[in-house]
Design a protein that fits this description.
By secondary structure, the protein is mostly helical. The chain has 23 helices and 2 strands. Helix 15 packs antiparallel against helix 16.
Length: about 475
C-alpha cells in the first residue's frame, strides 16, 4: 500500500491515513518501520481469540495504531537524563524487564553517555538510580499527551483511555498510576501485551516473543490475554506474515460498518494533531509548526493565493518538520555548535518528511512542498539543493515562514529575538537565501497584524515537564 485511496467525494479511509503516519511514531520510539502496524495486527488477532464485539474492536484498532502518539512528549527529558540519543534509550527500554533490579540496572548502564569514559558513565548512572524516580513522570507525559492527541482526532473515549493507560501492568507495578487488574482498561491491557510481543518477535522470532509473554503473565500482562495469544502459536502463517509488508493488511482489520473516513475538516485536524506530536519533540519547538503555519498562511493571503492553495500550504507548514521525529534530541537541543556529523543528521530531516508524507494519500501531493522548507534561492539549501527557478512560490513562502518563526523563538544557543530584529534578518537574507517577494509579503502581514504568530516560547512547555538537566 503506497497510501490511502480516496472514496467518493474526496473522503479518505482514516485507518489508512493514520497507519501511514504511524511510521513517524515508530521513528520517535526508536522502533523499526511498521512497529505500530504489526502491533495492531497482533492486538487485533488477540481480539479475534477473545471474540470482542465490533464496537470494542473498532476502538482497539485505533488504540493500537496510535499507542505511541505521545511518544515525543518525553524525548527531551529522556535524552537529557541519559545524556544519550532518546530513540536508542527508548528502544532499549522495550527490550528489558525494567521492573526487575537487574533489568533496570542493565538498561541504565547500557545507555548512559555512550562512548564516554567509564567514570563519567558511572556517575551519570548513579545519578539516575539514586535520584528521585523519573519513570512515572516520563510515562505520564507520554500517556497524557497520547490520550490528548486521540481526543483531538475525534477518536473514541475508549481509545483515549487505552492509550493513556498503555504502561500499566496487571499486578499494579506499572506506571504512571499503578493501576491493577481490571482497573486497567481492556484496550490498554491488549496494547501493552501486543507491543511487547511485537518487539521481541521482530528481534528474535515467534517462540522468543511468546516466551516473554509467558514469563510476564500475571505481572505485566493479564493472564487471560496471554492465553488468548498463546492460542495463536500454531498459526504459522499469521506469524510469518508479520515479517513481510504489512501495510496493505491493516485497513482490513477495522470492523466492517464502523470505518471512519477523513474529509477536509478531518484532514486539517490530523495535520494539527501531528503538529502537536512534532512540536512536543523538543521544548524549543513548542508550537513551532503552528507558528510557521500562521506566518505562511498570512503571507499567502497577502500574495493572493486561492483558498485551496492556502489550505494545502497550511497543512504542509503544520507537517513540515515531521521528519525531525527521527532526529535525536541530543542534537536538536544541543546548546553549542553542531559537529559536521550532527549537522548531517539534521540535514536529513526534510528527506524523512518527504518519505513519511509520500505514504499518506491525501498528503502525498504536499510531500515535495513540506520537504522544501530549507531550500534556498541560490540552490545551496537542503536536502535537494533546488535552485530558485524550480522552487514553487508556495515553497518559498514556507521557507520564509520557517525562518521567521525560528528567529522569533528561543533556541538552546540563543534567546528569542524581538520582532524588529527578526524583520531585519529576514530582509538581509532576501535574495541569496529567501525569496524577496515572500519576505516582503510576510513583512506586510506582520506589520498589519502585530499579534501574528505567537509569543516567543521558552524551554519548558513541550510536555508539561521541566527540562531535566544531565
Amino acid at each position: 500500500m503506497s497510501g490511502a485511496e480516496p472514496r467518493e467525494g474526496g473522503r479518505f479511509p482514516l485507518s489508512e491515513v493514520i497507519s501511514a503516519l504511524s511510521y513517524a511514531l515508530d521513528l520517535t520510539e526508536g522502533q523499526p518501520e511498521g512497529h505500530s502496524i504489526r502491533t495492531c495486527l497482533i492486538g487485533m488477532r488477540v481480539a479475534d481469540e477473545l471474540g470482542l464485539d465490533a464496537d470494542t474492536r473498532a476502538s482497539l484498532f485505533y488504540t493500537l495504531l496510535m499507542k505511541d502518539a505521545g511518544c515525543s512528549a518525553n524525548a527531551a527529558q529522556t535524552a537529557a537524563l541519559f545524556a544519550a540519543d532518546d530513540d536508542a534509550v527508548k528502544r532499549s527500554w522495550k527490550t528489558v524487564d525494567w521492573r526487575r533490579p537487574s533489568g533496570g540496572l542493565r538498561h541504565v548502564l547500557g545507555n548512559v553517555r555512550p562512548g564516554e569514559p567509564l567514570a563519567r558513565r558511572l556517575r551519570q548512572a548513579w545519578g539516575i538510580v539514586s535520584g528521585p524516580p523519573m519513570t512515572a513522570d516520563l510515562v505520564r507525559a507520554r500517556c497524557d499527551r497520547g490520550a490528548d492527541i486521540a481526543r483531538m482526532l475525534g477518536l473514541s473515549a475508549e481509545t483515549a483511555a487505552g492509550i493513556g493507560a498503555l504502561d500499566e501492568h496487571w499486578d499494579g507495578g506499572g506506571v504512571p498510576l499503578g493501576l491493577r487488574g481490571e482497573e486497567i482498561p481492556l484496550l490498554a491491557r491488549i496494547a501493552c501485551l501486543a507491543q511487547t510481543v511485537e518487539v521481541f518477535h521482530a528481534a528474535s522470532g515467534t517462540e522468543a516473543a511468546l516466551q516473554v509473554a509467558r514469563r510476564r503473565s500475571g505481572r505485566w500482562f493479564d493472564p487471560a490475554l496471554v492465553r488468548a495469544l498463546l492460542a495463536t502459536r500454531r498459526d504459522a502463517a499469521f506469524w510469518q506474515s508479520l515479517g513481510g509488508d504489512v501495510r496493505a493488511r491493516v485497513a482490513e482489520l477495522e470492523p466492517a460498518g464502523r470505518e471512519m473516513s477523513a474529509d477536509d475538516h478531518a484532514l486539517d485536524r490530523i495535520a494539527e494533531a501531528f503538529a502537536r506530536v512534532i512540536d512536543a519533540k523538543s521544548p524549543y519547538t513548542f508550537r513551532h509548526s503552528e507558528g510557521v503555519a500562521a506566518y505562511a498562511d498570512a503571507t499567502a493571503r497577502v500574495l493572493g493565493f486561492p483558498a485551496p492553495e492556502r489550505r494545502d500550504l497550511r497543512r504542509a507548514a503544520l507537517l513540515h518538520d515531521i521528519g525531525k521525529l527521527g532526529v535525536s534530541n541530543r542534537i536538536l537541543d544541543k546548546p553549542g555548535k553542531l559537529t559536521e556529523t550532527e549537522f548531517a543528521a539534521v540535514r536529513l530531516h526534510p528527506l524523512y518528511t518527504h518519505r513519511i508524507l509520500a505514504r499518506v494519500g491525501p498528503f502525498r501531493e504536499l510531500a515535495d512542498l513540506a520537504a522544501s522548507h530549507h531550500e534556498r534561492m541560490d540552490g545551496r539549501g537542503y536536502h535537494r539543493g533546488i535552485p530558485a527557478g524550480t522552487l514553487p512560490q508556495a515553497a518559498r513562502v514556507l521557507a520564509a515562514a520557517d525562518v521567521c518563526d525560528a528567529l522569533s523563538a528561543e533556541r538552546p544557543y540563543r534567546a528569542a529575538l524581538p520582532r524588529e530584529q527578526v524583520l531585519a534578518l529576514l530582509a538581509r537574507d532576501a535574495g541569496p537565501a529567501l525569496c524577496p517577494v515572500s519576505v516582503d509579503a510576510l513583512r506586510q502581514a506582520m506589520e498589519s497584524d502585530p499579534g501574528l504568530g505567537r509569543a516567543p516560547q521558552g524551554p519548558s512547555g513541550a510536555a508539561g515537564l521541566p527540562v531535566v538537566s544531565a
